[in-house]
Amino acid sequence: MRIALRCWLQHHGRTAPAATELGLARSTLTAWLDRCGHKLNLDLNSATARAELQLAVETVAGPDDVPAALPRRGGRTYRGPQPQAPSTGS
After folding, report:
1. pLDDT, tens only, 53-70
2. Rounded Cα distance, 76 and 62, in Å
3. Are 42 and 53 in contact (CB under 8 A)?
4. Secondary structure of 54-90 in the HEC alphabet?
5. Per-residue pLDDT tens for 1-36?
6. SS (H, E, C) 9-41
7. How many CB atoms lie within 10 A of CB 79?
8. Beta bridge partners of 24
9. Is residue 50 within 8 Å of residue 9, measured between CB atoms?
């Protein structure tokens, strides 16, 4: 969730572009953010809370905290490249 939260904060709290970059459905990212806010006891709608959280997240971020490193479980959540059917050469 840390990677998703960092991406969302880098998009200034905008869910649609963050979800696109992460390869997630907006509803999935929204659910994750709701869970983060609840666990951290923060109102993520507050600009002050988001600014403080951005500082904290960037302080602990490592070089591997990028959207490409987000663990994938497959299923409907991930909207990455779809495998192509093998071509039949004649």
Report:
1. 999 988 888 887 777 777
2. 28
3. yes
4. HHHHHHHCCCCCCHHHCCCCCCCCECCCCCCCCCCCC
5. 888 899 999 999 999 999 999 888 999 999 999 999
6. HHCCCCHHHHHHHHCECHHHHHHHHHHHHHHHC
7. 13
8. 78
9. yes
